[in-house]
């Protein structure tokens, strides 16, 4: 403990978001090493949410319940995200995903873990499965950001991460700039499960960095369901909320 305090005094921890020094008292709290100021600018999602898809309701009152869309057509999977994709969180995710900042995986995953631990433990997954990248994109980026995030969830839940079974079968254009309908079409048939027997009967935690319209997660869930998994809980660090 003393050594830790000395190290913190000599090399104070820096906020991953604003690069400002985190006061030692705050730094003593567990990672993710995001200062109180930046944390204060992150809009964490909170109840009332849809119990199924995790969509936030416009009102701040009341308890969680099914949203209209899930009432009409209840999805196979449940989904939760930690916070809205804006402000310092959007910046962090952008640097993590497009700026080669792989070291941001743990702080971002931890941020989500701290908000969603109850949901993740209740989901009780047997394994963690990251949303895969196409080979070409993986070569360009050098890493799959979802896989790096999923590592922490696997460690915390003490379950293995299964990589390579859920696959991208074909190249898809980036979803950015497409509307909800086009996003569904764009990823239709893009995923497949290589070895369905290995996943059959398993409870799967599906991990991605960002939820926008849910079309990518939905396409993954479709093929996991065909592989006869028992259940899918999906988690993302951030959720884009249409304004
Ligand atoms: Zn900061
Ligand atoms: Zn819903």
TrEMBL record:
Organism expressing this protein natively: Geomonas oryzisoli
UniProt domain Phosphoribosyltransferase: residue ranges: 195-239
Name by which UniProt lists this protein: ComF family protein
Domain Double zinc ribbon: 6-71
CDD domains: PRTases_typeI (cd06223)
């Amino acid at each position: 403990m003393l050594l830790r305090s000395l190290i913190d005094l000599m090399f104070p921890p820096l906020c991953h978001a604003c690069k400002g020094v985190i006061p030692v008292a705050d730094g003593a709290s567990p990672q993710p090493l995001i200062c109180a100021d930046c944390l204060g600018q992150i809009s964490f999602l909170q109840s009332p949410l849809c119990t199924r898809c995790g969509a936030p309701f416009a009102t701040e009152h009341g308890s969680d319940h099914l949203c209209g869309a899930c009432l009409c057509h209840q999805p196979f999977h449940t989904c939760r995200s930690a916070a809205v994709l804006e402000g310092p969180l959007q910046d962090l995710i952008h640097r993590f995903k497009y700026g080669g900042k792989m070291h941001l995986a743990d702080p971002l995953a931890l941020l989500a873990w701290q908000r969603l631990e109850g949901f993740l433990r209740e989901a009780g997954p047997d394994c963690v499965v990251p949303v895969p990248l196409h080979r070409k994109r993986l070569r360009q980026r050098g890493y799959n950001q979802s896989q790096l995030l999923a590592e922490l969830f696997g460690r915390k839940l003490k379950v293995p991460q299964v990589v390579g079974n859920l696959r991208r079968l074909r190249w898809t254009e980036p979803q950015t700039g497409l509307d909800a309908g086009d996003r569904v079409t764009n990823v239709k048939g893009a995923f497949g499960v290589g070895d369905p027997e290995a996943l059959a009967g398993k409870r799967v935690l599906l991990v991605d960095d960002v939820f926008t319209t849910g079309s990518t997660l939905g396409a993954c869930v479709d093929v996991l369901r065909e592989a006869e998994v028992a259940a899918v809980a999906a988690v993302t660090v951030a959720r884009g909320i249409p304004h």
